[in-house]
Design brief:
- By secondary structure, the protein is mainly alpha-helical.
- The chain has two domains: about 210 residues, HUPs (Rossmann fold, 3-Layer(aba) Sandwich), CATH 3.40.50; about 80 residues, Tyrosyl-Transfer RNA Synthetase (Orthogonal Bundle), CATH 1.10.240.10.
- It is built from 13 helices and five strands.
- A three-stranded parallel β-sheet has the order 1-2-3. Strands 4-5 form a two-stranded parallel ribbon.
- Helix 8 links the parallel strand 4 and strand 5.
- It is globular.
- The relative contact order is 0.14.
Length: about 325
């Protein structure tokens, strides 16, 4: 029986290279090998977006982004999280099984607390809704970066707790973490994140690519000095793209004879070669938004039918369905 793969993206801004290499690419690469689900995580976006018109725009944008990278809606169920309201019901049931101290260990909550941010209940409960998303469809694998691994662990813990209390119901999902993209670094050497402002958009213009690459910090070594590829922020992007000239650039780093300016210029060319066809496809898709909405509606019907079957079983087991 074919295993199930699921991934989602929160529509809170521009999709970037970190999103693509961390999870989106795997969805396309493996859509022939798995029963695949991809969704736009718009319930989660409400924790940080309080503008209805903006959320609608960003949600449609992410759907177009998925299609632009090669997602085939005939092979992958593409849908909106909000078209499956059963996930919010399931997350409430999960809430009754886990403790506040357990959720206080979640990275996102701890990070917000350390920064003295006012944390809304949605942020605190974020991992539970994510667990409902993952477990609802009998998911076997979830493509994630290393920083998202904890969410899969929480989903597994919740599934085990439910199965222990009410009987075998949920699969225990596994994270799919590719070794070469455990964490995609941003232009400042930290994890690529919209909140850090260090991203390179997956559909960036040529000028945006140049501006982002030229802003990457480097040390003061001269052209002829040997350089360590493992510690260079520019070279990290070379490795991510794996262009044909990667090994030549690596050799020149180790031997000396290449400056950071030249390295950045090579990277700009490679990024443009990689992004330009994606950007062109994205522009074509954006010309027919109704076709995108139709794909989302059809995907939502498939996903909700799956969720309704799961929730019938869950309701029966927890005692919400009455029958004589």
């Amino acid at each position: 029986m074919q295993k199930t793969l699921l991934t989602g993206i929160k529509p809170t801004g521009t999709v970037h290279l970190g999103n693509y290499f961390g999870a989106m690419r795997q969805l396309v690469d493996f859509q022939n090998d798995y029963r695949s689900f991809a969704f736009v995580v718009n319930y989660h976006a409400l924790t940080s977006i309080s503008d209805g018109a903006l959320l609608k725009k960003l949600t449609l944008d992410v759907a177009m982004d998925y299609l632009a990278i090669g997602l085939d809606p005939k092979k992958t169920t593409l849908f909106l999280q909000s078209d499956v309201p059963e996930v919010t019901e399931l997350s409430w049931i999960f809430n009754t099984l886990i403790s506040v101290p357990y959720l206080m260990r979640a990275h996102a909550y701890k990070d917000a607390e350390q920064k003295n941010k006012e944390v809304n209940v949605g942020v605190f409960d974020y991992p539970v809704l994510m667990a409902a998303d993952i477990l609802m469809y009998g998911t076997d694998v979830v493509p994630v970066g290393q920083d998202q691994k904890q969410h899969i662990e929480i989903a597994r813990d919740i599934a085990q707790k439910f199965n222990h209390v009410f009987g075998a119901t949920f699969k225990l999902p596994e994270p799919m973490i590719l070794p070469e993209v455990k964490t995609v670094m941003g232009t400042d050497g930290r994890k690529m994140s919209k909140s850090y402002g260090n991203v390179i958009s997956l559909f960036a213009s040529d000028e945006e690519i140049k501006k982002a690459v030229m802003s990457i910090p480097t040390d003061s070594k001269g052209i002829e000095e040997p350089k360590d590829p493992a510690t260079c922020n520019v070279f990290a992007f070379h490795e991510l793209l794996k262009a044909e000239n990667l090994e030549d650039v690596r050799t020149r780093y180790l031997a000396g004879g290449i400056g950071y300016k030249e390295s950045k210029e090579i990277l700009i060319d490679n990024l443009r070669a990689f992004i330009t066809p994606l950007r062109s496809r994205r522009e074509d898709i954006a010309r027919d938004p109704e076709a995108v909405l139709r794909i989302l509606r059809e995907g939502g019907e498939v996903a909700r039918a799956e969720a309704q079957k799961m929730m019938h079983d869950v309701r029966e087991k927890v005692g919400l369905l009455l029958s004589l």
